[in-house]
Amino acid sequence: MNIKLSNKNSADVKADILIEFLSPEELSGHVETEILTKAGFKAEQDSTCFLHEKGLLVCGVDEQKSDDIRSAMACGIKLLKASNYESAKVNIHSKKTLAALVDGIVLGGYEYDVYKSKPKKSTFKKISLTADGLDFQKSEKVFNHAMIIAKATNFTRDIVNMIPQDLHPQTLVTLAQKLAEENKLGCTILQEEDLKKENMNAMLAVGRASVHGSALIHLSYTPKNPKKIISLVGKGLTYDSGGLSLKPATSMVTMKMDKAGACAVLGMIKAASELELDVEIHAFIGAVENMIGGDAYKPDDVLVARSGTTIEVRNTDAEGRLVLADVLDYAQEKVQADFIFDFATLTGACVVALGPFTTGVMGHSNKLKYGFFDAARHSGELVGALPFNKHLKKFLKSEIADISNTSSKPYGGAITAGIFLDKFIKDENKEKWIHFDIAGSAYTETPWDCNVYGATGAGVRMMCEYLKNIE
Ligand code: BES
Ligand code: ZN
Ligand code: ZN
């Protein structure tokens, strides 16, 4: 689909359909009120009314604001893609809602049909955004940035949606190498032999029963004179069966998404390099498959992590934190970053705490957390803070090792997982680190906002917004 920003007057742009957004308050003042009302259209958020004879598609919004327009545009684009029209146009009234419109079109119109033998063919080819009356140069910049970020989000979605047969640790390595080549990024890969030399025993234990070798991927984007250096760390469990603490059958379905943190940081570094941001970015990924077998690591094992910390394994399904323990330790040694942000589909408890739409934000620095509240709000992502405390920390006590990989109590599981990671953050980095639990937000089986079935690309839009505004 071709998406074009034009400085022409809407009347001068040829298109089959004109898209309009209308709130309930505005309905009575619309030129087509009578016919819209006859059709039973109330202009409610995400409702649509197609007036074919008028060449008009009206999309309902609560208010004329970004969040509402993003969601309404996503509903509209789905209708257009299912129609037999070829083109549409939409008039932009404000620069503020332009990025939201792009998100609605690019993200709401996303479909993953790689595994369909007969993918749907759409006749819909072109959508024009007319910015007549706005500062075109400024609008163009907003448009181009929004397109890069939305496409990077879909890149992340594409990889998360790949099946575990096709996307395992070694194919993730190939994919990262391809991205590095295309975007001129630095690329270092540590294979199992290298991981052994690095004493990354926690990460290696998780992947031991898999037929696919585990790998650590390090990509870097290094512009001249960067304002800041950022390390991004991603959980890349290409499949999480739970290991010997095997997941119930119904919980295992969708666990191809356990690599969403890794795919998100790939999307972030892709976007950052295409936006040519003045920020040095390092993406570290632990690519591992958690399987069962004679060689599998076991509940009762004690692992010596790269940092030297010993970990009692009480549940092999709490594997993400084991992988991240070693990758975080490695990342902190290799790069002296100003900030360290990790992304992981870490706990079901985060979904229970915040619901399936919201990313959990954890860390010691309130200032850093607040920065992300703003970035999330402006980008259209949802985040919520989950606070650490010293009492919850006691739940991770082990009788035989330095720390247990699971909590002794069934409460506050997202936070205790975050506190586990904190054990591997060096003292000098405590205030520089934020952990994002995207277990709920990374994947959906019911469409919401501009998200369709499958991976959402959670984290990419928010992080790009944050990086763009970093001082
Ligand atoms: N990958 C899962 C977490 C998850 C759950 C992600 C649901 C997305 C949706 C993680 O490895 C896991 O299994 N966590 C366990 C931890 C428990 C054993 C302490 C969980 O959440 O149940
Ligand atoms: Zn697990
Ligand atoms: Zn997992």
Radius of gyration over alpha carbons?
Answer: 23 Å
Distance between the termini: 36 Å
H/I helix tally: 16
- Identify low-pLDDT runs: none
| Classification by helices and strands | alpha/beta
Query: Roughly what is the average pLDDT, rounded to an integer?
Result: 98
Instruction: Please give the order of strands in the largest beta sheet.
Output: 7-8-10-9-13-17-14-15
Plain-language structure description:
The structure is a single chain. The chain has helices spanning 24-27, 33-38, 66-82, 98-106, 136-161, 169-182, 192-197, 201-207, 249-252, 260-274, 320-334, 348-354, 366-379, 390-393, 413-422, 460-468; strands at residues 2-6, 17-22, 48-51, 56-60, 87-91, 126-130, 186-190, 215-221, 228-240, 279-290, 302-304, 310-312, 339-344, 359-363, 383-385, 403-404, 433-437, 443-444, 454-455. Helix 10 (260-274) packs parallel to helix 16 (460-468) and helix 13 (366-379) crosses helix 16 (460-468). The model has no long low-confidence stretch (mean pLDDT 98). It has an eight-stranded mixed β-sheet with strand order 7-8-10-9-13-17-14-15, with helices on both faces. Strands 1-6-5-2-4-3 form a six-stranded mixed β-sheet. It contains 16 helices and 19 strands. It is elongated, with a radius of gyration of 23 Å. Helices cover 35% and strands 21% of the residues. The chain has 471 residues and is an alpha/beta fold. The chain has two domains: 2-126, Leucine Aminopeptidase, subunit E, domain 1 (3-Layer(aba) Sandwich), CATH 3.40.220; 149-468, 3-Layer(aba) Sandwich (Aminopeptidase), CATH 3.40.630.10. The structure holds ligand BES and zinc ion (ZN) (2 copies). Residues 240, 242, 317, 319 line the site of one zinc ion.
